[in-house]
Design brief:
It contains seven helices and ten strands. The chain is an alpha+beta fold. α1 packs parallel to α4. The longest helix has 16 residues.
Length: about 260
Amino acid sequence: MKYADAGVNIAVADDAKQRIRHHASRTFTSDVLGGIGGFGALFALDRKKWKEPVLVSSADGVGTKLKIAMAMGVHSTVGGDLVNHCINDILVQGAEPLFFLDYLAMGKLEPQVVEQLVEGMSRSCARPAAHSSAAKPPRCPGFYPSGEYDLAGFIVGAVERKKLLTGKSVQPGDTLIALPSAGLHTNGYSLARKLVFEVARLKPDTYVAEVGNKIGAELLKPHLCYAPALKKHRRARLGFRPRAHHRRRHPRKLCPACCPVA
């Protein structure tokens, strides 16, 4: 037997890796060492820039929003969502994103899907200046159904120790500033999918007048990255005590937001 007989095609994997290489290399900065090809990603912290850095890390996924992407055949949005979600999670402690790692697994390797996912991740990494290190996606025939995949991300950032946000300085009377979301972002999709596709019996391409969009496209609206907005606040010398990346929906509007507290 050949490896391909077990469901793993090396030629297809090589095609996927070349597609990954093109998009991931767009995010590289001078801090990245070694390029693409090693199993370990190399990153050198700039000693001139940082005096007493504290590393801040987070790992997360996109959840069942992936089901919407698979049904619509649109995958670049959830790739970007994954990066933005992870960036927002470390922003709340005042951290600047340094590099991002992803884990992508599927039953049958589909290079076009891999390329869409990595393109979305690299696009989101390029905006807040985070480096993306995308490894070759594991093929798990017999584990994931055909056409389905799993996606997770891991991010590392840094913040000067004296600028670390912990929430200890929160006081009554502080002003709460809420930044709006684009929709559900990446939480609440188990409930949304049940309501939309089981209770209302809509199809992903059903146009819904109340939202002015096809319901699948509406549910795929991107998870916003709040790094650019907070960067403007820093330039304006607005002091923040804590920040919170809310993952739960407002009881009436179903809209999470990233809420820095001034």
